[in-house]
Fold:
Amino acid sequence: MDITVNILLTIATAATPLLIAAIGELVVERSGVLNLGVEGMMIMGAVGGFGAGYLTGSPWIGLLAAIALGAVFSLLFAVMTLSLATNQVATGLSLTLLGLGLSGMMGTSFVGQPGARLPNLDIPGLTAIPVVGRLLFGQDPIFYISIALTAAVMWFLFKTRTGLTLRSIGDSHTSAHALGIHVIRYRYLAVIFGGACAGLAGGHLSLVYTPQWVENMTAGRGWIALALVVFASWRPWRVLAGAYIFGAVWIGQLHAQAFGIPVPSQLLSSLPYLATIVVLVLISRNKRLTMMNTPASLGQPFVPDR
Amino acid sequence: MSANQDGANLLEVRGLTKIFGTLTACDHIDLDVAKGEIHALLGENGAGKSTLVKMLFGTLEPNSGEILWNGQAVTITSPGFAKKLGIGMVFQHFSLFEALTAAENIALSLDDGSPISTIAAKARALSYSYGLPLDPQSLVGDLSVGERQRIEIIRCLLQTPQLIILDEPTSVLTPQEADKLFETLERLRSEGKSILYISHRLEEVKRICDRATVLRHGKVVGHCNPREETAASLARMMVGNDVQAVVRAPARGIETAQPLLEIRALSRKPATPFSIPLRNINLTVRAGEVIGIAGVAGNGQGEFFESVSGEVPQQDAASVRIRGKDAGGLGITGRRLMGAAFVPEERLGHGAAPRMKLSENLLLSRHATDGKVFVGAGGMVKSDAIYAASQRIIEAMDVRKSAPDPEAAALSGGNLQKFIVGRELDRRPDVMVVNQPTWGVDAGAAAHIRQTLIGLARSGSAVLVISQDLDELFEISDAIAVMHNGVLSKPLPIAEATFEKVGLLMGGAEPGHVEHVLETS
Amino acid sequence: MRLELIKRPQRSMLFSALSPFIAFMLTIIAGAILFALLGVNPLKAFQIYFIEPVSQVWQLHELAIKAAPLILIGVGLSVCYRANIWNIGAEGQFILGGIVGSIIPVLFPQFEGPLVLPLMLLFGMVGGAAYATVPALLKTRFNTNEILTSLMLVYVAQLFLDWLVRGPWRDPKGFNFPQTIQFNDSAILPELMPASGRANWGFVFALVAAVLVWILMSRMLKGFEVRVLGSSPRAGRFAGFGINRMVFFAFMLSGALAGLAGISEVSGAIGQLQPVISPGYGFTAIIVAFLGRLNPLGIVAAGLVLALTYLGGEAVQSALGISDKVARVFQGMLLFFVLGCDTLIHYRIRLIGFATPKLEAAPKLEEVH
Structure:
């Protein structure tokens, strides 16, 4: 029983950063912007979160630093693609490359140091409920944030007028502009929100998941988050489901390695990546459905006539 | 904004100027719109009408000049501000969101925070009171062009504007739908609203407008009362000289001529969520004739063109036959090699690559048909040959340009269209299929292109023209068929075709119903 | 404050030529700030970073060794990106090229002679091309996003190589080190001028590939097809060019060149397979491709510049104790500035301050973002 609960707990821990990063990117893509820099923003959040936590001794300051660093880093992308109308794919890639380099440089002195860990936030009384108690109410704080974030984004996108405006920009920025909607301003805010989420997701890795700094410790999670958004057809609750499926794959292969299953560990390690490909194939093969769901202006640069 | 004398001008425009790079799109424009009038803004494509109204609606910023609203100078910085002043706009290219519902589309342009359900109810009520019924819950992507325009109009009316700007509203309507629109406009006028009506269709301007301002090359060339003018005198003001009328000698012996393009039971499933299926289309185009296909935009013309051109090949090889041979299974290159030539609707990005030179754009449709001439051993492009050939076409079609071999995007719409049509004519094709030959083209170029198409047919080719412009089809066609919702009617010989008949077919009436409706009207 | 872009009627030839240089200058300025922040005299750092690594002949050889894979991969990627096809998995194709190319020397070490090397190179190209076919196939058959699939395959390739050199291909006499046997002499890519340095034939391959691809892109119908499909896919379809065929062509060409780079690196610079055979060449080559303006001849120059950032990174690490990750930072910044400067080719940029509202009557001032 305890083993099951522990495994489920670790799945939640593995799923949380994927969920947060993917929810952030979902908002960005709903506004019609494709930011391929999630991996870069995430690793910046990870190094910033670890660094601030390590230097101040407070994981909470680390958490704030992770969010801030992710947001600032995404601002770079926003200026390039929104104000200078650069190619979003290339700019996103360069954000990732720059993030991997910068974080490696910033983190040289952190390698091998013990970090600050964000304590679990047990909700008194409720954790005593068998099984679900610890699962739902005995987790780290970012877990609660991730669930609240998903619900909030769902509400925002589909229940508020601002959310409707954001979706309309993703559908057609020219129409939105003709109606007097500030396309660029909305997109700036969406991109920065996505950056803050990616930073938070990175912070989770270095403050909760493995409280230490390891170079390239995001290990492709940013890219998997991007795939999750496609997998989820740009719907928040499906992102939630997808993130937990991937969390399970991630934890499953780790446990399989620990149990010494007679399969090369490298094959097990490659499972999350192979699973991503399989999932993308399954979801994309219906071209009509994909076209229906994809924000129509996704990835298109927008330059208003003056 | 309440204290105004009656009869005063609602809107006055003084010396408004807009410059794009080296082009002065609007040059010291003066314009007055009185309260309770329908004011026409007349001009050819490229005369500066759209630029002017974009400045009035705040999407473009003028370089100089002033705008007076109720006698007060205003700077319209954004559409939001224009709306607050009381200016509403119905765009030519609708500013709608296909993935959202009609109600959501309307909500997006209203500033009040009322819930969507309230807005939907208001919109439904208003739409029925104006006789423009609308289902607020429907997804815009599923609606016809006419229905989409209704959303634009209702959206505009819900903002209770004092001035409504309509940009070429009838270009997407059947003649009957246009009549309905005119009734609505007259009712709005009787309610004291002002309307700025942009069009290049002279008959409708004469019919509903009280005054007209005529633009040419970005300048105002005159104000007039259109009811006192003739269509010819208005046209002369618009164009600056008399447009050469298109001459169409009657086709002879068509019945016995060889069929060069045959379409047999052509059907196609919709390729994208919002596209139209084609249903059992049959048509024969014989040597020497021009067949026109009329229809409101978005009724399957684009899908039909793709299927006939071979951009999307068919399963059934016999569904398209060129010069008596099956071509349905072939791609566009294979069909070109059989003697067919194609001109698509979109010039930039479909018929031509915008950022490539004209000579390279020549290669686009002719790399295979003239493979020996333009492409040498090992797939090397003969740049001298394509340059010489493109200059030959430029000369033959009188293409005006600023550089010897400019990028396609640097040409005006009319000149690029002349080049694209000329590129195909230069091959002397046996079959020519053209989608919207003169869409957005100035009158001189349009007349030139139409005359060339007739000439091609009379020299023994089969010409198929798909167009939304009924005037054009009546000018050049020997018979007109109508496409509605993916179904093609039987061609009406031009002698029997009337605007009413064709218009009813465009609206989806069964051919059998035509006489009945005509009797009552 | 905000920026406004004003479209130029024609692309600016001036900025088309200047943009990489402006970008490089901006990178230098940003780099100076970075070094100053790290507490190093920027002038001294630049001396060590950019000048010293190329001050002697043998060092130029090292530069060529680093530049060769970058140019080879970058040239292939430029074809993809011109076609608007986003292969970002060149790192994986590089690794697979290295693995497949090593089949002969690892599994048949007794096979020697002049045929060995050409076969290895061919195998390497086939390996890279075959691996690149996977995302192409998924894209054309299942409409799957090639950016994500090609990238995921990089991780898989890295793990596959790791397994090979720790498992079945490990040198039995290698004291359990994770590496294959040393290749025999006929499987080693010869050096160009052994007297003066280590540079091998890989650099020649890179130059030849650049020239050939330049001819393909600028003089041949196939290159025209690539450019049309990349810039206006509908016009490409109208021309009768098949987008699916193009996806395969671009992926396989770039995969083959990445594979060639992989086996050249393994048989030239390394001489055996190891768990890691690339310091991120496949990703850095993306920067090379853009810095070279997606023009194969420009890519040769860009490849040399980026190779220098690698050498410079190693130099500052040993001389100043700064992490060699600084090279990655330089590369990332360079790409950023290149992309930003390219905006100048198609647009003029107008800076707008906090504009004072022009009219009091406006009910609501329009804020600037």
User: Anything to note?
Assistant: The two ends of chain B are 44 Å apart (CA to CA). Chain B is about 35% helix and 25% strand. Chain B touches chain C through 42 residues (CB under 8 Å).
